[in-house]
Amino acid sequence: MICKMEKEILIETKDKFQIKGILNSSKNATNKLIIFVHGLTGHKNEHLFFNGAKYFSQRNFDTFRFDLYSGDKRARRLLNCTIKTHSRDLETVLNYFKEKYSEIFLVGHSLGGPTILWANHSVVKSVVLWDPAFKILETFSDELQFNKEWGVYVVDWGTEFLLSKEMVEEWRFLDERILSHFVRPTKIICAEKGILEKSWKESLEKISVETAFTSIKNAGHCFDEEGTEEQLFEETLKWFER
Questions:
Q1: CA 69, 71, 74, 77 torsion: positive or negative?
Q2: Domain ranges, residue 114
Q3: In-domain check, residue 99
Q4: Which band of pLDDT confidence, cut at 50, 70 and 90, is reported for residue 139?
Q5: pTM of this structure
Q6: What CA–CA distance (Å, rounded) separates 192 from 178?
Q7: How many domains does the chain have?
Q8: Taking the CB of residue 62, how many other CB atoms lie within 10 A of it?
């Protein structure tokens, strides 16, 4: 089944950048929208979001996926971003859609989790976090090095990425403090083969709002393994339709 409509949306930020995203509409008219938020070095057309748009639009949800930074002329660049920058841009996206839909849901993958939690997302009905980043700097310290000459951090994942000092310091600050930013019902879905499951299990009792937790067997952080993406979507749908 092909989505009824796919439309490019351009949203202006207060500081004159432009957010580019794709709105996929359900076959039937709906007042429900899922907004996807990608993680570090991610983008709107990763398989989780591209395939997720099709999956959820077939189940009576419109979806919107967007880039927090890109190579487009008026887009932000990763090096100039912080988590707070991401969160403000998410708030801009929410403000754009809040009068257009009566029910808005958020899905964040990896660093998309802290982006959501640090944003004002009070207009959102509920949230699902896909293997959300938490205490992550403890786990890839060998891959993250500060370059004194450039004054930036370099992440080496085969391809090297540059992060600002502000981004890394915010990330360190967030470890335990992020738990107080859960304000809407939230489901955390971890990858069994990832590194984040244990930390989240230990922290659930510190979250004051309604939460649920599950883990996808044999899944890595990006849910690339056969069948894991489908399970991820099914678990997400259960939470949004409960």
A1: positive
A2: 5-137+179-241
A3: yes
A4: low
A5: 0.94
A6: 22
A7: 1
A8: 25
